[in-house]
Amino acid sequence: MSLLTLLEYASVLVFAITGALVASRAQLDLVGFAFIACLTALGGGTLRDLLLDRNPIFWIANPTHLALGVTAALVVFLSAHLLESRYRALLWLDSIALAVAVAAGTGIAISLDQSAVVVVLMGMITGCMGGLMRDVVVGEVPLVLRQGELYVTAAFAGAATAVITRSILGDDSISLFVGACVTWVLRAGSLYFGWHLPVYKSRPPRV
């Protein structure tokens, strides 16, 4: 099994769990769990493949990804009540999923010989769009847009680091690993230490 395949499976699994946790907070039924889990797990990769004209889309080419999302939803449906804080678990699992998905999207774009700018954008889209779809559908403020938090910034930094590292070392595996680490460290720092970007504050208009 190739590194990219492993990254895709890991991304699908962890993002599906986060989707199912969001569904549990929204008190959805089992079908709702499966839908939100699969939307979260497959949404970013689907948009990436559409933009890259990658045919067939990854989960159509390999429906195991879809089955993995549904299985994760079922497991969370039966066990979510055991978690002391589903929201805290959601935040930290989402940070891991973000790092893995950014690496997966970046690696797939690299394998298709895309330019550096496109590679970075595909890493960001793969990492961010599934979670954005998840939160919008259930009516929550998307984690991607939380005030000042490092989310899209972490995805950008991770994907860009992978591209730069690859240009220096010429090794895809090391580059993707370093990129994933940078993504996670920034996101985790935002969650744990409160790292954030400056937030715009409106000022009274001048008379």
TrEMBL record:
InterPro entries: Gly_transporter. Keywords: Cell membrane, Membrane, Transmembrane, Transmembrane helix. Pfam families: Gly_transporter. The chain crosses the membrane at residues 6-23, 30-51, 57-78, 90-110, 116-138, 150-168, 174-195. Coiled coil: none annotated. It is found in: Cell membrane. Residues 6-79, 91-165 form the Glycine transporter domain. Belongs to the UPF0126 family. This is Uncharacterized membrane protein YeiH. It comes from Sulfitobacter litoralis. The lineage of its organism: Bacteria, Pseudomonadati, Pseudomonadota, Alphaproteobacteria, Rhodobacterales.
